[in-house]
């Protein structure tokens, strides 16, 4: 029989904000469960996270947890915009291979006297990890940081291509608006519901089957299907039916979400303890907004954030800004330094002084989990990134979805039309739409309804991570399966 301490997992996320924090949470609970955990960051990401996240220092102090870093192969002064993730992935795969191999199967003795790596837990889009682990015959369990609804749509892409549904037929291009409302047949469980406009953005943008992003997704799918299992940051009560479809393709799929709540079940405080700044971020959090929220009436504030990578044109941003001002509501808005071209604070400063001084607060980066849990927050205007979506679900906060790319169009469709705790403003941008949707989610009967369904799902999220809950059970199974690999 293998002793508990003998299992050793090498956890490797794709180096980006949407990917590293959820995998850190997963790594932390694996370590709490008695496994040795080596967490692999790129040098660049690790430096940035260390500078802004106390959570990293705390993790480094855990007894069976350690960080290791590898270069990403890009020049020091490369801006590494996430939107060029294909270049980053390629660079890692080709230039960082030896570094990764040395962590997976070291040539010398382990400096800490740890056992050899028995299992790789790798981001499904990180081909570096899957290829090297296959070469070295180490079992891999993959993690996808998107929701099950998007992962299932991704997994169906080869069938959509085979069935001629993507790339979208050319004759439709002229009447693009009508074409985008056509429903998709090739995603089982979503037939007649998912429209072309709701598919992951790679499908919508692809002009041919040799499109680089489409190829990338197809490779990631093939990867994930070859693993010993798939970990998803979701929970049965939210995505049970879609999870069943995924399990028809990948039978061993663990739904462990919301990971940020599950990790609190396993730390000393428990899932219901008050939040503290425990997250990992690429930017320094501006905590002054919590004080500002303290001075606002209950459920009066729209919280706005577009995640870590979305960028807008200046026109888009101004249109949005006017909609927000016209709604007359209080707001807390995260304006990342690189959210739009040029210094947008200057453009809106005048309005801010004139009209919104009392009712608006701008920050560069917020402690989002804490903001969403604050009683003054009434709704979340989000880009529908999966982490943001799940954090909002966990906090019971209704959403106004303004999706941009990748999995976001699928997520927002589910929020608006399946789970019904938000509204989807996809492809309908403009100041009057922003104003109308903010009012819809903040005022009257509809607002009450949305808040009620959001509250009910938040309760189910809490139950799923508690002892005996579905995510808790899946986590126990995951640990059992990893330990079995080290025998
Ligand atoms: C990206 C994609 O957008 C997303 O669709 C995909 O699922 C993962 O990669 P990102 O755009 O950063 O991620 O969005 P999201 O997944 O929502 O992650 C953003 C994270 O940053 C959240 O955990 C959120 O709490 C955090 N955040 C955001 C802050 O801590 N403070 C902020 O001010 C804004």
UniProtKB/TrEMBL annotation:
Family annotation (PROSITE patterns): UDPGT
CDD domains, A to Z: GT1_Gtf-like
InterPro entries on file: UDP_glucos_trans, UDP_glycos_trans_CS
Swiss-Prot/TrEMBL keywords: Glycosyltransferase, Transferase
GO molecular function: quercetin 3-O-glucosyltransferase activity; quercetin 7-O-glucosyltransferase activity
Keyword Transferase: yes
EC number: 2.4.1.-
Pfam families linked: UDPGT (PF00201)
Tree of life domain: Eukaryota
Family: Belongs to the UDP-glycosyltransferase family.
Protein name: Glycosyltransferase
Provenance organism: Phoenix dactylifera
């Amino acid at each position: 029989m293998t002793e508990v301490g003998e299992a050793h997992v090498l956890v490797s996320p794709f180096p980006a904000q949407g990917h590293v924090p959820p995998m850190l949470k997963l790594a932390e609970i694996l370590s709490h469960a008695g496994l040795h955990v080596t967490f692999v960051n790129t040098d660049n990401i690790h430096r940035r996270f260390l500078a802004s996240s106390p959570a990293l220092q705390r993790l480094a102090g855990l007894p069976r947890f350690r960080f290791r870093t590898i270069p990403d192969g890009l020049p020091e002064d490369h801006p590494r915009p996430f939107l060029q993730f294909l270049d980053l992935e390629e660079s890692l795969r080709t230039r960082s291979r030896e570094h990764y191999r040395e962590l997976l199967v070291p040539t010398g003795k382990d400096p800490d006297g740890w056992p050899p790596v028995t299992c790789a837990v790798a981001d499904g889009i990180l081909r570096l990890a899957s290829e090297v682990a296959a070469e070295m015959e180490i079992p891999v369990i993959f993690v996808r940081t998107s929701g099950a609804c998007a992962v299932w749509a991704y997994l169906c892409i080869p069938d959509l291509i085979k069935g001629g549904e993507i790339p979208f037929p050319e004759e439709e291009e002229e009447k693009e608006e009508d074409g985008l409302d056509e429903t998709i047949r090739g995603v089982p469980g979503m037939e007649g519901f998912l429209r072309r406009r709701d598919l992951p953005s790679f499908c919508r943008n692809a002009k041919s089957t040799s499109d680089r992003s489409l190829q990338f997704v197809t490779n990631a799918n093939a990867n994930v299907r070859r693993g010993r299992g798939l970990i998803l940051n979701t929970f049965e009560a939210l995505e049970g039916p879609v999870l069943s479809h995924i399990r028809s393709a990948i039978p061993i799929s663990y739904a462990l979400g919301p990971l940020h709540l599950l990790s609190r079940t396993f730390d000393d405080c428990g899932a219901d303890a008050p939040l503290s700044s425990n997250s990992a971020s690429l930017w320094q959090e501006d905590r002054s907004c919590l004080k500002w929220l303290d001075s606002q009436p209950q459920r009066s504030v729209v919280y706005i954030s577009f995640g870590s990578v979305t960028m807008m044109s200046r026109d888009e941003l101004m249109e949005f800004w006017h909609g927000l001002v016209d709604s007359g509501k209080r707001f807390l808005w995260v304006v990342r330094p690189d959210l739009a071209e040029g210094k947008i604070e200057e453009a809106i400063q005048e309005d801010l002084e004139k009209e919104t001084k009392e009712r608006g607060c701008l920050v560069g980066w917020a402690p989002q989990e804490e903001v969403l849990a604050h009683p003054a927050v009434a709704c979340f205007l989000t880009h529908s990134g999966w982490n943001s979506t799940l954090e909002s679900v966990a906090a019971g906060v209704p959403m106004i979805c303004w999706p941009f790319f990748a999995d976001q169009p699928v997520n927002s469709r589910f929020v608006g039309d399946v789970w019904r705790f938000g509204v989807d403003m996809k492809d309908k941008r403009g100041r009057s739409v922003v104003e109308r949707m903010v009012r819809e989610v903040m005022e009257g009967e509809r607002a009450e309804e949305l808040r009620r369904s959001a509250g009910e799902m938040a309760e189910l999220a809490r139950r799923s991570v508690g002892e005996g809950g579905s995510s808790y059970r899946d986590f126990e199974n995951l640990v059992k399966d990893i330990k079995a690999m080290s025998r």
